[in-house]
Amino acid sequence: MTAAEAEQDSGVGLAGLPSVADPSKVAPKDARALTKTFLDRLTELEEGTHEYQYVRNTLIELNLSLVRYAARRFRNRSVEMEDVVQVGTIGLIKAIDRFDLTREVEFTTFAVPYIVGEIKRFFRDTSWAVHVPRRLQELRIDLAKANEELFQRLDRSPTTAELAEHLSLSEEEVLDGLVASNGYLTTSLDAPADHENGTTRVTTFADRIGELDPAMEVVENLHALKPLMEQLGERDRRILQMRFGDEMTQSEIGAELGVSQMHVSRLLTKALTRLRRGLLAE
Question: Which residues does UniProt call coiled coil (predicted)?
Answer without folding.
Answer: none
